[in-house]
Specification:
Six copies of one chain form a homohexamer. Chain A is α/β, with parallel strands linked by helices. Helix content of chain A is about 35%, strand content about 25%. Chain A has seven helices and 13 strands. In chain A, the strands form two sheets. In chain A, strands 2, 3, 4, 5, 6, 7, 8, 11 and 12 form a nine-stranded mixed β-sheet that branches. Chain A has a two-stranded antiparallel ribbon with strand order 9-10. In chain A, helix 3 links the parallel strand 5 and strand 6. Chains E and F meet through strand 1, helix 3 and helix 4 of E and helix 2, helix 6 and strand 13 of F. Strand 13 of chain B pairs parallel with strand 1 of chain C, so a sheet runs across the interface.
């Protein structure tokens, strides 16, 4: 059975994408009612990166990175690759050569529910990756998969053109259709949080700021 | 069923606590006959922190951080929060707003057998956390728990007022009653280790320093 | 039953070893046809180290580090210790005192399918360790094991005198007999990769550089 | 933010569903080009069950089973419940009381990426469950979720009205739109496999039955 | 440092213990407000056992079963052994010889956060074990531990003389002081559940039986 | 790079093999000084099997079962297949068709550090498998590996012609060279264990049977 490469996908405007990056994973997830975060085994290969981009998806065979050569051509400025093998694999699918090609096209990073290698080089190049594994073992190029079809990566459904936000807190998926609304809600939350942060820094308690004392008493909380 | 907040706990003198911090997890655990360390999945969210403090404990519902608002009020200078959900949860219970409030009260860090978020901000603020997970997904505020009751966190029993020591080697619990003795034994070990370190740096072998050759021979060790 | 210490092992020339270190784990594994890498749970205790050395092996009882005192005497310039317990253990077998003794003898690092402690000190000393666990809990010295016998560490067979390459991508084993050939193949790969890196940086695609378009079409890949 | 219950979903004809059950997970997955299987941590609570049904989906808060009371009313003959918490939870969401209610409505089983309890009773009642965990600890009823929205369960996207096939090999999802085609392909495979099984039982080799010897030689396989 | 064996512990009356066994893990945990269950990696080595007994605790060195010989003498009719190593170990501490000795003394089973072996023999003998691992590898007898001191096993604090309830849902700890009350509450729950089971079997819905419709509406649940 | 099939291997006499099967994993491992057992994640797909056989080894690409077709031809009466992928894979490599072919040749079972499927059929056929995973997802046939070369499976080195013993306690490897001696030692242990079992059944204590009281006292054990 053959795979398919979908060439044209509907991307989110980069102004929206970039504002979501600024908000970061925790705020964006909160703005989506605590949804969107991939499983916590997806970790950055080095600390400190915070990016957002349009998802270009790859459904890839286990331990076979042929399709990554295919997907490079489909990428453009502001994209993030999202790759999931069809069964578990810790092989090192991705290294500095792919990153060189992707950086040239303006790709901002990689999310892979598999293995990554050359992590020291990738850090030096400034190409961030969130992966399930780090492993030196490479892959073959024998079996095809598909590009820009709906996939599931680390517990989250990802459609091509969804926005991916990734930082030290992990990876969050923002559906294409709600990206602008989530950005707006994220901004509102940031403003509200800034006010509360100032209160907490001044010594006020969340119990009072949020008016929780009565509700806790009603639930039966007792002080002894 | 309601929860309970115990207001008054018996803390260890901070002079003892601070000396234990200086010794660090490995030495303190050794001084307790190889006990006290939480399971190794409890990792610092950033490297380099070394703290000790009096445990303020929270038994918390899974994926519900309401009780963290409650516990802030019970904290004071030199405390460390120790939080365990009543069943497994990787949700992100804790972020920079809580840390702001806790820093204001002199709390030194957090130990949580669950998820943490805003880890880049927490590093910037200098609020160290040892957690089982890092995850952007937040929690609800619907169900109550208890503060300052005996809990189990990552395999170790923790009572309010026990001393927590945490560094890059993980987290160690020192029971309230033996804190001073453990401090003394830790100091003695440091002195002994300093002497042995000098011998090893000079090329002496542990086999000779500790007089092990005869015992190994008696056990049947053979050189070929 | 007694253990055995094999004193004389056949080491690989350090010129070969050092060139393998320069190539690093990913290239060396590729030069071995995607073999040699230990399981990805073997992680460096701090980032940035890249070493190679001759394997000195230790089969060690779980939670008992007596044999590490024994093995120090068998080590020499350019060695790397490789230690596996005979059943699972997360105990902290190794700390800064051992590292002091090993550095004195020119040992370059430690690979252990168990626990390590004093990790902040080890980073400061510049003694790199790749371990399965980090844990403050120490071990006893009651039961003997063997030095320089064939072992399995984290999924890979290791014989004394094999070359170990370790960096941020993990740990790779190069059999003694093929070390020179793997070095040569690694160098050839580096040259080839440098050429391809330049092409990718210039915007060429792997699809064209490697002539993959026809093969993908033959496999049934479709563009829509 | 409120949840939503979608009352009307488009189910697959039970004749198709039942034929898929007969084929079982391995054949159905093969007929889908090796896709559709949930992660292997989804295990039956007792061996020997083989079912298929129309998916009724629930996105549920961690450690909160309120929505299971809601979903019962939406179930009908031939359905299978598929439940995923929005963050990891090993709590025991489901037991024999729910199973009693669901059996009454003709529900055939439960797939839950969380915990199940009363497993001995469920086996006695003949209500099969595939879960990630078995745990006695129960849940609260405080927070709402949604019924019959698209979810991800154990690595697979599940839409309401997809067909779920589950047996001792795990759980497989068949998309609604392709259920009939997958059934047909599964039947064709069973016939082909029956012929090959007879050949293998008679001592023929796959190397000959599938004509693999030349291809293996071309790949470079050598016999020594 | 030496270990200690506490000879005299305060056991719970076996009439209470036996009634708790009849209720089983899920009910007893519910009667304790969803607490008491060990982590779900504690699994029975064979299905179908349901026991309760007075906890006799052992803090044991990793991969060393010497103390199991010590504890046999301290056991009596109606006891359950609860064993935790001081650091992780998957070694096979326990087999049919120990079970023979314990059965002779009326011990009902074993809970061990480590490895067990001879599982086929143990099933044949009818000696149930809940363990974290099953492994053939045995242990040494070199290092002492303690009997009948407070321990933590699989996430739960266990004191000597607490009641252990174990069945196919896992293992639950009932503190000595509340055992009678938990029994009473368990019985009350069973009666209530029996009534509800009859209603559900008759087709009533939990939404109505528990009067949930209004509360769900107030929370914002919408039907579409 | 091509793979290799080694046709002629030196097998252990089946009389020795069969006697080792009778002893079982725990006794055989004990007779090897607590070595030989694979990691405990290798579990039987159904309970109750106890086998031994000569190892026929396969180093296999991840998620590719082509080489299993190759190895069938190399198998004979009394063999056990031992298969390890070169990087982690949970794919279902093996099912009832392969088992049909292998049973015809007298193969006794399969050990695979990967996935297995058709487990209900395999149980019905009486073809036992010890695997790391059970998963319905199949594999491709694109890349070659090697047959009858030394491999590592689940933590143990396995050479072709070693004896594999497998039962409900897991899988144990007996090196070819020591198989007869291990059989003899296993028999001696069984006789000794039978005598001790009788003593324990009569109420004697290990403390007295093994004369441990003095040694424990010398170690510092105290009774209170």
């Amino acid at each position: 059975m053959g795979g398919v490469v979908v060439r044209n996908i509907d991307r989110v405007d980069l102004a929206i994408v970039d504002r979501l990056a600024k908000s970061g994973v925790a705020t964006v997830s909160e703005a989506q009612a605590r949804t969107g975060c991939m499983k916590p085994y997806m970790r950055p290969i080095y600390p400190g990166a915070r990016i957002a981009g349009n998802a270009v998806t790859v459904s890839i065979p286990p331990a076979d990175n042929w399709m990554i050569h295919v997907v490079v051509e489909q990428c453009q400025e502001g994209d993030i690759l999202v790759i999931t093998p069809t069964s578990e694999s810790d092989a090192g699918y991705f290294g500095d050569l792919f990153a060189t090609a992707l950086l040239k096209r303006g790709v901002r990073g990689l999310i892979i529910e598999g293995g990554c290698r050359d992590v020291a080089d990738l850090q030096e190049m400034g190409f961030p990756v969130w992966s399930k594994y780090i492993r030196g073992t490479g892959t073959v190029k024998e079996t095809i998969g598909s590009v820009n079809i709906p996939i599931v990566c680390a517990g989250m459904a990802v459609n091509p053109g969804d926005v991916i936000v990734a930082d030290d807190d992990g990876v969050c998926v923002v559906p294409h259709a709600t990206a602008a609304a989530v950005r707006d809600d994220s901004i509102a939350r940031e403003e509200k949080e800034a006010r509360n942060r100032a209160k907490f820094a001044a010594g006020e308690l969340g119990l009072d700021v949020y008016g929780m004392r009565e509700k806790l008493k009603a639930k039966g909380l007792k002080y002894v």
